């Protein structure tokens, strides 16, 4: 799947021109069009240098060990985490795993590497952050367990902080080299945080079961606004393009959606805090994003319509 990362907007229209007709000019799009899949995508990744997006769906005919998370270390080495808490390191040039450890008690939801590619961080369903030294092939430590599953992990603040999302909608922060206990935490108004992707050293995007993609600033900890949404469907995966201009998302609605990151990158968090009313609706940060009022109004309208239909049916039955 190709996606364009050029600075200008993409032109979408027919290459054929009819000199005898007065057609309207080609429509200008800020992002690529949505892609409809035959099954929900369970994995997303942009190519590091080319305008290419790869997606794996739940109907794939690849059978291995029950791998739940996979992370490329370099062109030959990769790390995997399975459904039973196992963490393995593989080299495609050799047979068998280079490292095989089982310190977690539950599934491995996500993994991250430090820039030196020495420490592998794991987020697990047992609520613990795991630390593995893949250079020396040894286990380092597990953090104290948090409330709920840890579902995602990423490095922030130039590697000085580690952020973990949880199934209870809380982001836990750890200091680098202080992995045993959290240094900070804050709860989003979200049912869960199922996936996260860093946008800058301070900003990240989260995907939730409620279908909303939120932009979050780390230290100061603040929800900045809404980047996009999969209405009434959980967000499964997020990926940022190599140029940083597009965010891709996959949901249980079997759609791949693309969101423009230009407006988010211009947000100044301090100014936003002075303008925003406490407890007010979250603002939209892309042309296709709804505010929280719009998002939940749509859901309420659907519920009200359904309730009205049920009431009418009840009246018909009573007659």
Notes on the protein architecture:
This is WD repeat-containing protein 55 isoform X2. Residues 300-309 have a biased composition (Basic and acidic residues). Belongs to the WD repeat WDR55 family. It is a single chain. With 319 residues, the protein is mainly β. Helices cover 12% and strands 39% of the residues. The protein has 3 helices and 24 strands. The chain has helices spanning 262-265, 269-275, 292-318, and strands at 10-12, 27-29, 35-36, 41-46, 53-57, 67-72, 77-82, 87-91, 99-101, 108-113, 119-124, 129-133, 138-142, 150-156, 161-166, 170-175, 184-187, 195-198, 203-207, 212-217, 222-229, 235-240, 246-251, 255-260. The strands form 7 sheets. Strands 3-24-23-22 form a 4-stranded antiparallel sheet. A 4-stranded antiparallel sheet has the order 6-7-8-9, with no helix packed on it. The protein has a 4-stranded antiparallel sheet with strand order 10-11-12-13, with no helix packed on it. A hairpin with a 7-residue loop joins β8 (87-91) and β9 (99-101). It is globular.
Shape annotation: globular
Structural class from helices and strands? mainly beta
Report the sheet-strand fraction: 35-45%
Terminal CA distance: 56 Å
Q: What's the total count of β strands? A: 24
Contiguous uncertain segments of 5+ residues: 7-19, 295-319
Radius of gyration: 22 Å
Biggest sheet overview: 4 strands, antiparallel
Distinct helical segment count? 3
- What pattern of helices and strands is seen along the backbone? EEEEEEEEEEEEEEEEEEEEEEEEHHH
Mean pLDDT: 82
Percent of residues in helices comes to: 10-25%
The order of strands across the largest sheet is 3-24-23-22
